Amino acid sequence: MRYISTRGGIQPINFKDAVMMGLATDGGLLLPESYPQISRQELDQWRSLSYPDLALRIISPFVDDIPVDDLKGLIQRSYATFNHPQVTPVVHRDGVHILELFHGVTLAFKDVALQLLGNLFEYILAERGERLNILGATSGDTGSAAIHGVRGKKGITIFILHPHGKTSPVQALQMITVGDANVHNIAIRGTFDDCQNMVKALFNDLQFKEKYSLGAVNSINWARVLAQVVYYFYAWLRVTDEGDRPVCFSVPTGNFGDIFAGYVAKRMGLPMGRLLLATNENNILTRFVRDGDYSLANVVATVSPSMDIQLASNFERYLFHLYDQDPGRVRAAFAELRECGRISFTPAEMEQVRADFCSATVDQAATLETIGSFNRETGYLLDPHTAVGVRAALDLLPSDAARVCLATAHPAKFGEAVEKAVGTPAPVPGSIAALAGMETRCTVMDADLEKVRQFVVEHVA
């Protein structure tokens, strides 16, 4: 399996090089040249597999440069850190299936990918005798999951940028209470888009990237998307075990990585309906699906902060497929975005988009109402991001389908919003309660690219 760039400027590379490159050296995102096809017969044979064994079946066709026994060990070690034997269990409540993705070390879906990515980094670095300086941006959950995926690992230093005061308090504490010497937190006075743009700018400075051995943990890293593909298959196998019926997934969406993993699963042959793309008020992607309007707007702070994003990095991967894998068309689209603040689409392209996705915007009032009503009716407590997906699913998806809603975080990570919705605090797991009073370490700075660059230079190992 070889990997290519959405912008067409690199020669095909192998999986390990794709993991280490992160963002392609031409500024594009990496994708496999093709997708393995999974037959219905294979799917039925996989029903009894454990999550790690299923992950090996799905991931291994994409990885032909790591011995299968080594890959199996990396996968098993990654998911041994989860606190549920099924890793991503599915529970049924009030006509929807909740795919619980929050049983990892930081209680968010990012752990599913970043525990594996951290182990892949360590494996490849040890093999090559190299070091890596990870640079990432987070709207809340990626940062803590990335930090916990690589803290204390040999050969790795990590720098995470997050918008100062715009994550939940728990999200911030999960990052800034990590005292390992290889961890550096940078709080930026600005938005997540400011953080992400600066990270991309440093990666696009190829001389700087090479000199300081920069690596990516954001979902611009293909390995993260690949790891997330697995739980779509796992959920499908759980909800179709009592008969064959349509399956639809509802995905609360910010940076488009999680829902793109579902798109990849569908391209691999997983039977499903249109993916439901659920947004909060930062709804550039909903405007795109519904109206063909992909135009930038100001970021609005909401009770679902991990979705407070306008410019979704992984959207470029989808565009590459929408444009029939034409890198010239991708480059032209992003030139238009830089010059005009928007991307325009043909009627034929929008017809394809609407065949792939449906979409809904769920505002803060509806989000809080959904947390409250769902809790009263079912006893189940949703976090605000998951509530966006559940509300959209109940409104848009057919009731005769298996409606699978991705639960992206434990409700205790967003305690203020949950308490406002239900009137009582969310139960606090011990790992979160232990954060109170811990020593913190974080550097606050303006959204100044050169200041961030200098900080990295001064703190690389």
UniProtKB/TrEMBL annotation:
PROSITE patterns: DEHYDRATASE_SER_THR. The modification N6-(pyridoxal phosphate)lysine is found at K110. Its cofactor is pyridoxal 5'-phosphate. One of its GO terms (molecular function) is pyridoxal phosphate binding. Keywords: Amino-acid biosynthesis, Lyase, Pyridoxal phosphate, Threonine biosynthesis. GO terms for biological process: threonine biosynthetic process. Coiled coil: none annotated. Residues 2-79 form the Threonine synthase N-terminal domain. It catalyses: O-phospho-L-homoserine + H2O = L-threonine + phosphate. Belongs to the threonine synthase family. NCBIfam families: thrC. This is Threonine synthase. It comes from Pelobacter propionicus (strain DSM 2379 / NBRC 103807 / OttBd1).
